[in-house]
Amino acid sequence: MKRLDWYIIGKFLGTFFLSIVLILCIAVVFDLTEKLDNFYENQVPLREIVFDYYMNFLPYLLDMFSQLFIFISVIYFTSKMASNSEIISILAAGVSYERFLRPYLLTATFLTAFTYGLGGWVIPQSSKKMLAFTDKYIEKFTRENARNVQMVVGEGTVLYIESFQVRTHVGYRASLEHFEGKTLAERITADRIRHIDGYNWRLENYTKRNFDGMRESLVQGQTLDTTIYMLPEELFITTEQAQQMTNAELYNYIQKQRERGAGNVKAFETEWYSRFAGPLGAFIMTLLGVTLSSKKVRGGMGKNLGIGVTLSAAYILFSTVSTTFSVSGVMSPFMSVWLPNFVFLIIAFVLYLRVRR
């Protein structure tokens, strides 16, 4: 590490954190203005507003804006260095362009690891606290009942519950169907289904039908204890809750759903791949930013900033549109998440070869 490295690293981190702090302050002011009436009407203690809501809201905002402001920060201070002829002096002193890029890439590696840890562990935990605060004081969104739930609970096993109450752990009008291939082999219907513990459930006032070709046998009874590989809280998991899972929790949930043969895990797979593609996007944006702005051009910093904002907006738009392809089934979750990174990495590499010459 030479003095040049520390000089560029200091400018990179200083510009990034200054710009991100400013935008976070603006975002908090706007959010506070919007929710001030709710805080006043519900007599929310100041301590809870600060520590339970905004201290958990800031990591989410930081992760949301990090890629954009990494890109803009690189363009800003690199354009300033180019306009002051600092980069010309560095290269004229015998420093190769690859050597000049080293502190940029080192800082980008640090920020990539930082945003990866932020999205994988910090934000899921803070999101739970922030949403609990929102549910308590601002807008009630947690459900007490789940209705018309149908899910795969094992290979060839489908569970349907018309209504389930979270407080009593009791469901009404349930059916459990077992398939051998595409053929229905067994069907159990019950007036009530009750969770005992773990994966143990009890069917009450049940009717059990077994199918053997054209033959059918019927058994009725008051209670039947059975094992269903499902917990009550799984009935209330929605795609929005993917962001509240840590990397380990999200991975385990996806694997569990795949083993069950469930097909509604695309939103969770998209979130999983985003946990890796997002941080690496910061690395790509750094390479793109420095290759765009390291050459002194007419129009100075303003022109480079204009190009940078346009490209960052295009990247965000491309990422958003590409993600919808996964949900609609047009593209796999992996490709929909990584495609913007592949495209902008090619653009950055082409610009690098051009500027290097």
Structural domains: how many: 2
Low-confidence stretches: none
Determine Rg (CA atoms, Å). 27 Å
Strand order of the largest sheet: 1-2-3-4-5-6
| Strand count | 6
Distance between the termini: 25 Å
How many helices? The count is 8
Beta-strand fraction estimate:
15-25%
**Helix and strand string, N-terminal first?**
HHHHEEEEEEHHHH
Question: Residue share in helices?
Answer: 55-70%
Largest sheet: 6 strands, antiparallel
Would you summarize the structure shown here?
The chain has 357 residues and is an alpha+beta fold.
Walkthrough of the structure:
It contains eight helices and six strands, in the order H-H-H-H-E-E-E-E-E-E-H-H-H-H. It has two domains: 3-139 and 266-356, no CATH class; 156-229, Roll (SH3 type barrels). The model has no long low-confidence stretch (mean pLDDT 88). The relative contact order is 0.11. The protein is 62% helix and 20% strand. A six-stranded antiparallel sheet has the order 1-2-3-4-5-6. The two termini are 25 Å apart. It has 357 residues and is of the alpha+beta class. Helix 1 (3-41) packs parallel to helix 4 and helix 6 packs parallel to helix 8.
Write the layout of secondary structure elements.
Layout: H1 3-41, H2 46-83, H3 86-92, H4 97-138, E1 145-154, E2 157-165, E3 170-180, E4 183-197, E5 200-212, E6 215-227, H5 247-260, H6 266-293, H7 300-328, H8 333-356
Antiparallel strand pairs: 1-2, 2-3, 3-4, 4-5, 5-6
Helix pairs in contact: 1-2, 1-4, 2-4, 2-6, 2-7, 4-6, 5-6, 6-7, 6-8, 7-8
